[in-house]
């Protein structure tokens, strides 16, 4: 349980920081422009908080804990596969069924989700590997 919690802090912390920078600074204007007319005035908090909590837990369970004794590149690669599948399902479904969902946002968000999941998994693995010696 202790290993899970340490890994979870690494995954969720990295994910929130990187996604905050991405959505709040780097890609904010392109998302707003591309999705004009589709966005709410204010965003309900519960859905996105639930996503971050559950997705971080899934990343720890499916990638970090399974790779505690693997090299860092393997953790990053497996995290990328998880991100590719999860963000692909979200973006490709939106593109397929929502009128006006932009292809550019589909590809950009899919690539971002792949990277941020990989980096977050690696971060959780690194934290456990360097701070919790009993896991090795």
Question: Could you list some keywords that capture this structure?
Answer:
single chain, 136 residues, mainly alpha, 5 helices, 0% strand, elongated, membrane
Give a structural overview:
The protein has one domain. The protein is 79% helix and 0% strand. The protein has helices at residues 2-26, 28-34, 45-64, 72-97, 103-131. α1 runs antiparallel to α5 (103-131), α3 (45-64) packs across α5 (103-131) and α4 runs antiparallel to α5 (103-131). The relative contact order is 0.20. The mean pLDDT is 93.
**What does the radius of gyration come to?**
16 Å
Number of separate domains: 1
Order of helices and strands: HHHHH
Q: In this structure, how is the largest beta sheet organized?
A: none
Which structural category do the helix and sheet elements fall into? mainly alpha
Task: Kindly report how far apart the N and C termini lie.
Answer: 15 Å
| Strand content range | under 5%
Cα shape? elongated
Assembly classification: single chain
Low-confidence stretches: none
How many DSSP H or I helices? Answer: 5
Care to count the β-strands? Answer: 0
How is this fold's topology laid out?
Blueprint: H1 2-26, H2 28-34, H3 45-64, H4 72-97, H5 103-131
Helix pairs in contact: 1-3, 1-5, 3-4, 3-5, 4-5
Structure at a glance:
Keywords: Membrane, Transmembrane, Transmembrane helix. Helix 3 (45-64) crosses helix 4 (72-97), helix 3 (45-64) crosses helix 5 and helix 4 (72-97) packs antiparallel against helix 5 (103-131).
